[in-house]
Structure formats: structure tokens, C-alpha cells
Amino acid sequence: MTRIQFVLLLLAAFLGGAAGSRVWRAPAAAAQGGARFKVVEAEEVRLIESDGRPAGRFQIDKNGRPGMFLYDKHGEVRAVLGVLPSGAPHLALSDRKGQVRATIAVLTDDTVKLVLSDGEGARRVEIAAPADNPPRITLSSRDGKPLWTAP
């Protein structure tokens, strides 16, 4: 089983467990060493490179919220998939310096929001698609002042 297949299997198991129960229910899958598992229960799963460097982590935080963290070859978190305190799912992508540059979330009012930030963390593009209103797009300057908004 390749590393990508293993990560996808863990993600599928994680999402299945989060949706239905605290137990991950995944098809039997071969793990390293030939062991086979039908159910995996854990509060944290760490994925490491052959040299011990972190590659990913699935965990339940102290408040019971699930999260998945993916690292680059330097051990920096580059992608986070999780659930906000409000219960909203979100995805955050970071640059090589660790600065969050893109986030997408489905908020509690079912608005989908995409935020693109510059290297200093300033929001530069914000797109919001509310469930029952027209979408909004805002482009901002580095100091946060709106340059253009539609509609």
C-alpha cells in the first residue's frame, strides 16, 4: 500500500467515524507489516516519513473537534482540515513560512466563505456565497481597505 493510499484510507476512516460514531469503520486494509484492521480507534494518528520526520497527523483536540494536519518536508504544517468551534468545517492552506494564505469554510448559516491572504496575513480577496443571498466578492488593499466590492 502506498503512502497516499494509506492517507486516503485514514481520511475515509476518520470522516466515516466523525459522521457516525467515535469508532472508525473502514474496510479491512493492509498496513505496514501485513497487519489487517477492520476498526481503528484513536484520539491521534501520526504519519511519519521513513526518517522519522512528521508528514501528517489526525487528532481529536481537547474540545472533541477532529482535525487533520499535513506537513511539508521541513516539518511545517501546510494544510489543515478541521472543524471550527462553531461546528463549521474549514480548510486552511499555508505558505512555506507558515502563514495561512487560503481558507475555505462552510459557516453555521450555510454561507461558504473563501479568504485569500497575502504573505503578511492581510485579507486581500474574500468571496462569500450565502445560502439565500447573492454572492459577494471583496478585493482589499494591504491595509485592509476595500478596493472593489461586488455586488
Structure report:
The structure is a single chain. By secondary structure, the chain is mainly beta. It contains 1 helix and 12 strands, in the order H-E-E-E-E-E-E-E-E-E-E-E-E. The strands form 2 sheets. A 10-stranded antiparallel β-sheet has the order 3-4-5-6-7-8-9-10-11-12, covered by helices on one side. Strands 1-2 form a two-stranded antiparallel sheet. The protein is flat and about 55 Å long.
List the topology elements.
Layout: H1 3-20, E1 24-30, E2 36-40, E3 44-48, E4 54-60, E5 66-71, E6 77-83, E7 89-94, E8 100-106, E9 112-117, E10 123-129, E11 136-140, E12 146-150
Antiparallel strand pairs: 1-2, 3-4, 4-5, 5-6, 6-7, 7-8, 8-9, 9-10, 10-11, 11-12
List the defining traits of the structure above:
1 helix, 48% strand, two-stranded antiparallel ribbon, 10-stranded antiparallel sheet, mainly beta, single chain, 151 residues
Q: What is the CA-based Rg, rounded?
A: 18 Å
Mean of residue pLDDT values: 82
Shape: flat
**Strand residues, percent:** over 45%
Alpha plus pi helix count? 1
